[in-house]
Write a structure and sequence with these properties.
- The chain is an alpha/beta fold.
- It has two domains: 193 residues, Glycogen Phosphorylase B (Rossmann fold, 3-Layer(aba) Sandwich), CATH 3.40.50; 166 residues, Glycogen Phosphorylase B (Rossmann fold).
- The strands form three sheets. A seven-stranded parallel beta sheet has the order 5-3-1-6-7-8-9, with helices on both faces. It has a six-stranded parallel beta sheet with strand order 12-11-10-13-14-15, sandwiched between helices. A two-stranded parallel sheet has the order 2-4.
- Helix 4 links the parallel strand 8 and strand 9.
- Helix 10 crosses helix 12.
Length: 394
C-alpha cells in the first residue's frame, strides 16, 4: 500500500504551508528506542519550521531550548497492564485541556478524538512479546496484548474520520487488512534516519576504546545486534550461528534475559564471543564498532536500527520484514536471511572471507539510507497536517 496522492502531495520538499499548531501525544519521547527517537526528530523538525508544538507524554527528553510546550502525564511506566490504562485516562484529561491545532496520537493511547493516528504497530497482527521467558511474564504479555487489541479496535473505529499513518508500507497494509473500513484513510510515511550522525568512519577512536574495554582482539570481526525483545528479534538464531562462524564475535545492545542467552552461548561453546552492552543511548558508537549488522527478526514495523546501520555503512543481514524489505536489495547492500542459524552462519562466513564484499555492501547500504532522511519525513508530516487543518477550517 503506497501513500495516497490525495493525502500527501508528491513534492515532499514543498515548504509553502504556513506553520500551524500541532499536538503530539505519545508515551515517551527521547533518544532511546526507535519510536521515541522518531518522535523526537519529528517534533524538532516541526519546531525548526516554525510550528507551535505541544507534547503530552510520560517523558520528553528534548533539548531545553527546543521550545516545546510539554505537559507530563504523571504515573507508572510499569507494569504495562497498569501503566497503559492509567496513561489513557490521565493523558486524555491533559489532551482535553491542552490540545492545540492538529492532534496526532501515537496509536490507541487516549480516549479523545484526534486528527492523525500514527501507527507504529498494528496490534491485531500478533500478541505482545514478553521480555523474559518466565510464566509470569508470559501471562502478563498475553493480558497486555489482549488489552491492546481491544483498545485499538475501539479507538480506530471511534476515529474513523482520522488519517492513519503507518510507519512503513507493511504497517499500512496491515491496518488496511485488519480494518477494511479504514482503507481509504490509511497512508504510509516512512520513518527517517539521521544520515549525518550515522555515517561511515565516525567515532573510530571511541570504537577502538570500546573494543579494548570489551576485550575483543583486533583480529576478530564483530557483528552487532541492537534491540530488546530478543526472542522476536532473533538473538538465539544469531548465537547459534556463531557455532559455525568461528571468526565472529557478537555485541548485543539492548535489554532482555541476559542469563538465558549467555547460558545458550556457553552450551554451544561460544560464550566468550558474546558481549553485552545493555541499553545505550550512544548507538552510533555501537555501529562504529561493527563489521556487519544482523537482525533475524520475525516481525518489525520499520526497524529504525537497520536504517541506522545502513547509514553507518554496515553490510546488512536481516529478515524481509516491514521496512527492511523496502531497504535491502538482496546481494547489493546486504543479504535477506531467515532465522535458520546455518543461513546466518553461511552469510557471516562469506563476509569474513571477502573483505571487498563487505566494503561494497556497506557502501551501497549507505547510499540506500540516504533516501530516507529526517527532512523527507518531517516534510510529509507537515503537508499532512496542513491538509488536515484546511479540512477542519472548511
Amino acid at each position: 500500500m503506497h501513500a495516497r496522492a490525495d493525502l500527501v502531495p508528491s513534492d515532499v520538499t514543498d515548504r509553502s504551508a504556513a506553520p500551524g499548531a500541532v499536538t503530539i501525544v505519545a508515551h515517551d519521547i527521547g533518544s532511546v528506542g526507535g519510536m521515541e527517537r522518531v518522535l523526537a526528530e519529528l517534533i524538532l523538525g516541526l519546531r525548526a519550521r516554525g510550528h507551535e508544538v505541544t507534547v503530552i507524554a510520560r517523558t520528553c527528553a528534548l533539548p531545553q531550548d527546543a521550545g516545546v510546550k510539554f505537559h507530563r502525564v504523571r504515573g507508572p511506566s510499569r507494569p504495562a497492564l497498569l501503566a497503559y490504562p492509567w496513561f489513557m485516562l490521565a493523558g486524555s484529561l491533559l489532551l482535553w485541556r491542552w490540545r492545540r491545532g492538529v492532534v496526532q496520537a501515537t496509536g490507541a493511547i487516549v480516549f479523545n478524538r484526534v486528527d492523525v493516528v500514527a501507527v507504529h504497530y498494528c496490534h491485531q497482527v500478533g500478541p505482545a512479546n514478553p521480555s523474559r521467558s518466565s510464566a509470569l511474564f508470559r501471562v502478563h504479555a498475553w493480558l497486555v496484548g489482549h488489552l491492546l487489541r481491544i483498545a485499538e479496535r475501539m479507538y480506530f473505529r471511534a476515529n474513523r474520520s482520522a488519517t492513519f499513518v503507518g510507519v512503513s508500507e507493511g504497517v499500512a497494509e496491515e491496518v488496511g487488512e485488519h480494518y477494511p473500513a479504514l482503507r481509504e484513510r490509511v497512508m504510509s510515511i516512512h520513518n527517517g534516519v539521521d544520515t549525518v550522525g550515522f555515517s561511515p568512519g565516525a567515532r573510530e577512536p571511541d570504537a577502538r576504546a570500546l573494543r579494548a574495554k570489551l576485550d575483543i582482539s583486533a583480529d576478530r570481526l564483530i557483528a552487532v545486534f541492537v534491540g530488546s525483545e530478543w526472542e522476536r528479534k532473533g538473538l538465539a538464531p544469531l548465537i547459534r550461528a556463531l557455532a559455525s562462524a568461528a571468526d565472529w564475535d557478537v555485541v548485543v545492545a539492548g535489554d532482555g534475559d541476559r542469563q538465558r542467552y549467555q547460558e545458550l552461548a556457553d552450551s554451544l561453546g561460544v560464550g566468550g564471543a558474546i558481549h553485552w552492552l545493555g541499553v545505550t543511548g550512544d548507538v552510533q558508537l555501537v555501529y562504529a564498532l561493527a563489521d556487519v549488522f544482523v537482525l533475524p527478526s520475525s516481525y518489525e514495523t520499520f526497524s529504525l536500527v537497520t536504517f541506522e546501520a545502513a547509514a553507518s555503512g554496515l553490510p546488512l543481514l536481516a529478515t524481509p520484514v516491514s521496512g527492511v524489505r523496502e531497504l535491502i536489495d538482496d546481494g547489493q547492500n546486504g543479504f535477506l536471511i531467515d532465522r535458520d542459524p546455518q543461513t546466518i552462519a553461511r552469510r557471516l562466513n562469506q563476509l569474513s572471507e571477502d573483505v571487498s564484499l563487505r566494503t561494497r555492501l556497506g557502501r551501497s547500504a549507505r547510499e540506500s539510507a540516504l533516501g530516507f532522511s529526517w527532512e523527507q519525513m518531517v516534510s510529509k508530516h507537515e503537508q499532512l497536517y496542513a491538509r488536515v487543518a484546511a479540512e477542519r477550517r472548511v
